[in-house]
């Protein structure tokens, strides 16, 4: 068995276990219901397998998965928006598989352009500069997205959003 | 501390074990559909280009208190799913087994497989036993490297001066990383592919910056050599001042000379190059001018003097490039110099950036002819930098020669992260030269040092007399560059015996016991000028320590690894174990991602 192949198989063994939670959370935040999130998660892992991604560290691996998951979901949403209703008017999620709180609703209601940034900043604890590098965006764009998202969330949730 | 409500919101989305299992089953089913349908399954094709995206570094983390934490430390709230790994592991081995043979039919170039391997895999169809698909890396390889004639020990009595040109290239390291990622291990690296000075210079060090009018801050650390009990290891860091890109020069006139010959038609070449441009255009100053010249069978001007603020037109032009045809590098180079001259900025940075795999098969093909042509052209004050891409037919020798003769630097782009480093993080040192013809000369004092061996810089060596000869071309150095220079020193009390020829006419080579072990002299010119500037520093007992810095230890580990990988005759007691121990001791104190990546690659290359 070629060295690169056994290495790849060895890598893949661990990748799903390490990244499935992250990918699922990101996909769910975009798709806003479990069945679509699950489909998206599967497609993202298929991309990883087919593209033979090679990761240098868990952090880089996670960056790749968050970025690909976010882009994939945005593509799906755009495609469905072309077919039916505009993104902003997408129907409220029907799925109630989770105990909803208002914060989750507020996050899910955010525009798709904020979601990956909000996830990485609030949940994973990265700084704006790090997020810019991970997502290949301009740091000032990330900062302005963060501040816009923060003010939307603050308005919905009240209190001082940290 | 971030708002707990948002954290809890995401926490509540944690998928159940059942959900995870269901999704994994779904992935399994999709791979089987692909197999049944001969690769055209229901799953979207992977994107055509980013097969080479690999994040290697550039993520320095700070915690909430703003204190740096090790880059790989997990963010506090990150949760890992451990219970599920065992089940997933078993299934994914299977997935990997099913999907690997499909890669060929998906039209994807696997990153770690070389193209020759992929062709075999494709011919073999889905059931091809992978063991037959493995080709020895050398078999399909027409890469070219110039041989390195490693420095041996020199006795101070016969030659107290060690003279060389500065070198800030890093290509050899990135190329090694590409090879390790492709599965090369120790003993398989082509001769001449590993240049230790480019390994050393790839990394950032905590060297002191220059003071006053000095070009360099100089940091020297001497300690006991890890692989040789009879020598000491000197690691000397030279650091130029950081200058923000937008303040570095009176404008930048950049001409990209892009090889679009047939051999560039590969995701890891033209594909990666196109992606790399997205980083570059983000970082240029709005007033910079960008021109793009391509060459294949014939040269073509794609973009001329476009202000860098027109990012879209630049990216559109780059995106429209398609590879095909032969390679007339000569015509391309001539056209690029013509365009660079037309947009010449007095006092600014005028630079051609050649992006190629180095396979120049029409026109001036010999290295010496290319060399002469470029050497002639550099008199015009236009720099020529080189970005190398791809593998299999890669011509490291031609690329390095071009950059040296063109007074530019030379980088190898193996992945997007490297593009991000060279064209983003390090843009200023890549693009803006702060000194031309930088020459360094160490003079050893025979009263203390009876012999020495310079590590690396073999192809930068100058004769002692050339140090003062201002006509002699040397190395260019950019803003914020660190140059690391290393020597093994044989002190007078060392047990090591050197081969010394005794002069029959007698000589007074005893040196003076003034406390100076050696002196460093530097000469350089301001960019575009002829005025030579000089500086010197002396070093001695005070620079010797039994507890060297992390920078010293890391440099020692890099050198030791290169000696093992090139089977150096000077490797002494070197061992991979010791290399890893030294790197680990540095990593324990918190090192950047590049150093961590080195650790990982070293261990991968020894498996």
Plain-language structure description:
The complex is a heterodimer of chains A (162) and B (607). Chain A contains seven helices and no strands. Chain A has 162 residues and is mainly alpha-helical. The model of chain A is unreliable at 1-7, 85-91 and 93-99 (pLDDT under 50). Chain A is globular. Chain B contains 17 helices and 19 strands. Chain B has helices spanning 4-11, 17-36, 85-99, 115-124, 130-133, 171-181, 196-202, 267-283, 311-319, 329-342, 367-377, 396-405, 416-425, 427-431, 550-565, 576-588, 593-604, and strands spanning 61-62, 68-69, 154-155, 161-165, 217-224, 232-239, 252-259, 289-295, 299-307, 349-356, 383-389, 407-413, 433-444, 449-455, 461-462, 475-478, 482-491, 516-525, 532-540. In chain B, β10, α11 (367-377) and β11 form a beta-alpha-beta unit. Mean pLDDT of chain B is 78; it is low at 38-139. At the A-B interface, α1, α2, α3, α4 and α5 of A face α1, α2, β1, α3 and α5 of B.
Helices and strands in order, then pairings?
The complex is a heterodimer of chains A (162) and B (607).
Chain A lengths: L2 H29 L2 H18 L6 H26 L18 H8 L2 H12 L4 H8 L3 H19 L5
Chain B lengths: L3 H8 L5 H20 L24 E2 L5 E2 L15 H15 L15 H10 L5 H4 L20 E2 L5 E5 L5 H11 L14 H7 L14 E8 L7 E8 L12 E8 L7 H17 L5 E7 L3 E9 L3 H9 L9 H14 L6 E8 L10 H11 L5 E7 L6 H10 L1 E7 L2 H10 L1 H5 L1 E12 L4 E7 L5 E2 L12 E4 L3 E10 L24 E10 L6 E9 L9 H16 L10 H13 L4 H12 L3
Parallel strand pairs in B: 7-8, 7-10, 10-11, 11-12
Antiparallel strand pairs in B: 1-2, 3-14, 4-13, 4-15, 5-6, 6-17, 8-9, 13-16, 13-18, 14-17, 18-19
């Amino acid at each position: 068995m070629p060295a690169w192949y056994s290495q790849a198989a060895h890598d893949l063994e661990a990748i799903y276990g390490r990244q499935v939670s992250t990918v699922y959370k990101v996909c769910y935040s975009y798709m806003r219901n479990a069945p679509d999130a699950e489909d998206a998660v599967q497609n993202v892992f298929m991309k990883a397998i087919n593209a033979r991604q090679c990761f240098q560290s868990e952090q880089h691996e996670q960056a790749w998965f968050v970025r690909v998951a976010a882009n994939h979901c945005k593509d799906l949403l755009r495609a469905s928006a072309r077919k039916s209703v505009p993104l902003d008017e997408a129907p409220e999620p029907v799925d109630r598989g989770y105990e909803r709180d208002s914060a989750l609703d507020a996050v899910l209601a955010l525009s798709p352009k904020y979601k990956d940034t909000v996830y990485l900043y609030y949940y994973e604890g990265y700084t704006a500069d790090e997020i810019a590098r991970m997502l290949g965006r301009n740091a000032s764009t990330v900062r302005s997205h963060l501040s816009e998202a923060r003010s939307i969330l603050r308005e919905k949730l009240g209190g001082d959003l940290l | 501390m971030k708002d707990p409500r948002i954290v809890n919101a995401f926490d509540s989305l944690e998928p159940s074990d059942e959900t995870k299992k269901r999704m994994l089953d779904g992935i399994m089913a999709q791979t089987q559909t692909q197999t049944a349908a001969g690769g055209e399954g229901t799953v979207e094709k992977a994107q055509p280009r980013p097969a080479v995206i690999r994040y290697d570094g550039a993520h320095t983390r700070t915690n909430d208190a703003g204190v740096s934490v090790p880059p790989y430390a997990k963010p506090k709230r990150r949760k890992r799913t451990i219970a599920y790994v065992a089940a997933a592991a078993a299934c994914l081995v299977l997935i990997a087994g099913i999907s690997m043979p499909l890669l060929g039919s998906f039209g994807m170039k696997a990153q770690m497989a070389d193209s020759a391997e992929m062709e075999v895999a494709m011919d073999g169809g889905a059931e091809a036993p992978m063991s037959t698909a493995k080709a020895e890396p050398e078999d399909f390889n027409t890469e070219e490297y110039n041989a390195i004639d490693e420095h041996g020990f020199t006795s101070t009595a016969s030659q107290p001066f060690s003279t060389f040109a500065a070198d800030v290239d890093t290509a050899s390291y990135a190329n090694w990383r590409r090879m390790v990622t492709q599965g090369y291990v120790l003993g398989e690296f082509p001769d001449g592919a590993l240049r230790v000075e480019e390994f050393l210079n790839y990394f950032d060090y905590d060297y002191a910056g220059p003071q006053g009018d000095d070009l360099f801050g100089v940091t020297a650390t001497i300690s006991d050599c890890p692989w040789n009990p009879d020598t000491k290891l000197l690691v000397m860091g030279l650091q130029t001042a950081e200058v923000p890109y937008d303040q570095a020069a009176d404008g930048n006139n950049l001409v990209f000379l892009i090889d679009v010959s047939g051999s560039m038609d590969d995701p890891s070449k033209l594909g990666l190059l196109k992606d790399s441009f997205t980083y570059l255009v983000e970082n240029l100053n709005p007033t910079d001018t960008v021109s793009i010249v391509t060459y294949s069978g014939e040269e073509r001007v794609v973009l001329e003097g476009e202000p860098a603020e027109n990012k879209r037109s630049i990216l559109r032009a780059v995106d429209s490039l398609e590879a095909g045809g032969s390679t007339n590098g000569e015509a391309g180079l001539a056209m690029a110099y013509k365009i660079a001259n037309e947009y010449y900025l007095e006092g600014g940075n005028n630079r051609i950036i050649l992006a190629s795999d180095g396979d120049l098969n029409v026109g001036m093909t010999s290295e010496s002819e290319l060399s002469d042509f470029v050497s002639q052209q550099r008199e015009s004050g236009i720099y020529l930098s080189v970005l190398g891409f791809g593998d299999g037919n890669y011509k490291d020798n031609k690329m390095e020669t071009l950059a040296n003769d063109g007074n530019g630097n030379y980088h190898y782009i193996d992945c997007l992260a490297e593009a991000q480093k060279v064209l983003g993080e390090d843009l200023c040192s890549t693009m803006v030269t702060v000194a031309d013809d930088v020459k360094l000369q160490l003079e050893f004092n025979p009263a203390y040092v009876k012999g020495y061996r310079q590590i690396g810089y073999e192809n930068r060596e100058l004769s002692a007399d050339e140090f003062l000869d201002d006509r002699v071309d040397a190395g260019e150095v950019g803003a914020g560059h660190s140059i690391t220079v290393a020597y093994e020193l044989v002190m007078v009390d060392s047990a090591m015996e050197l081969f010394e020829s005794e002069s029959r006419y007698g000589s007074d080579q005893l040196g003076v016991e003034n406390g100076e072990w050696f002196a460093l002299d530097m000469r350089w010119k301001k960019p575009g000028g002829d005025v030579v500037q000089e500086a010197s520093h002396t070093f001695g007992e005070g620079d010797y320590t039994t507890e060297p810095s992390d920078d010293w230890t890391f440099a020692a580990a890099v050198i030791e690894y290169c000696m093992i990988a090139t089977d150096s005759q000077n490797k002494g007691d070197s061992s991979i174990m010791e290399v890893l121990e030294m790197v680990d001791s540095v990593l324990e104190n918190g090192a950047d991602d590049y150093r961590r990546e080195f650790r990982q690659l070293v261990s991968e290359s020894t498996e």
